[in-house]
Amino acid sequence: MNIDKVLEEYSGVSIAIVGDNKNYLKSYVENLVYKITNNDMQRYYIIDQENIKIDDIRQIQDFLSFSVESGKKIVVLFDAEKMLPEAENSILKTLEEPPKYALIILVTTSWNSLYPTIRSRLQKFVLNFPKNKIKELKDFIQKKLYLEFPEEFEKIKNKDFVEEKITEQLGVNTYYTFYIKMKEALEDSKALNMLVMELLEVKNFKILKAIAKVALWICEEYNLNYTIAREFSKIASSKVSNYNYELTYYYILLSLKDAIKKNKV
């Protein structure tokens, strides 16, 4: 049975949806949940955050404590492997005996990171990224954008991009803008300084992490050494926001520029 039918027809059970691409899983499951519940916020509860705590589980239990007039309730925990130990212990009984009117979904790219006691209470379904579509994309940046925004395939395939002013909204156009401006900055010092100044106007942690991610893409594109990629990866995956933004932006761009120059020698 495919995932669509599972979410449409199942209730009174707890399931796990396991895949190999976090962004694809999130986009697919989220859109399907909205469709099934007709965007009725009384019928779905979604947790999507860095760490899932015991208070989050208590909120789920409160949400499931009463039924709705029609249809079922759906609970989704994205990145379920990020449940803290006390949260995992707290959710065990709920997973084992969910209300008949409810479907509980744990979404993860790391099935084996869940406690065995959690896994034993779940029906497992696999939803892997449809990599065959990548063959339709020719450019390096198209492939990277598709992996980041799988729901935007047609836009990416048609190169329907618009360079945008940098804001806190991070969409496919924003990532494309980062890529283009960073490539320009690597060729021209004036463009580099202008990009840093534009980024500082927003000074947002999510944007800093996105810039580090695009820097990783460029490392791959130019086949740069592992050491510099590892440093960018630390920034892209960081949970701590106390960076000196100006220095970090300059570090990323100047390090890229220097590494590419050395790579050409």
Short description:
InterPro entries: DNA_Rep/Repair_Clamp_Loader, P-loop_NTPase, Tm0771-like_C. Residues 187-258 form the Tm0771-like C-terminal domain. The protein is α/β, with parallel strands linked by helices and 265 residues long.
What does this structure look like?
This protein is α/β, with parallel strands linked by helices and 265 residues long. It has 2 domains: 3-129, P-loop containing nucleotide triphosphate hydrolases (Rossmann fold, 3-Layer(aba) Sandwich), CATH 3.40.50; 161-264. It has helices at 3-9, 22-36, 54-63, 85-96, 116-119, 140-148, 153-157, 172-185, 189-202, 205-221, 226-236, 245-264, and strands at 13-18, 44-47, 73-77, 102-108, 123-126. Helix 3 (54-63) links the parallel strand 2 and strand 3 (73-77). It is elongated and about 65 Å long. Residues 187-258 form the Tm0771-like C-terminal domain.
Give the SSE layout:
Blueprint: H1 3-9, E1 13-18, H2 22-36, E2 44-47, H3 54-63, E3 73-77, H4 85-96, E4 102-108, H5 116-119, E5 123-126, H6 140-148, H7 153-157, H8 172-185, H9 189-202, H10 205-221, H11 226-236, H12 245-264
Parallel strand pairs: 1-4, 1-5, 2-3, 3-4
InterPro entries: DNA_Rep/Repair_Clamp_Loader, P-loop_NTPase, Tm0771-like_C
Protein name: DNA polymerase III subunit gamma/tau
Pfam family, one: DNA_pol3_delta2
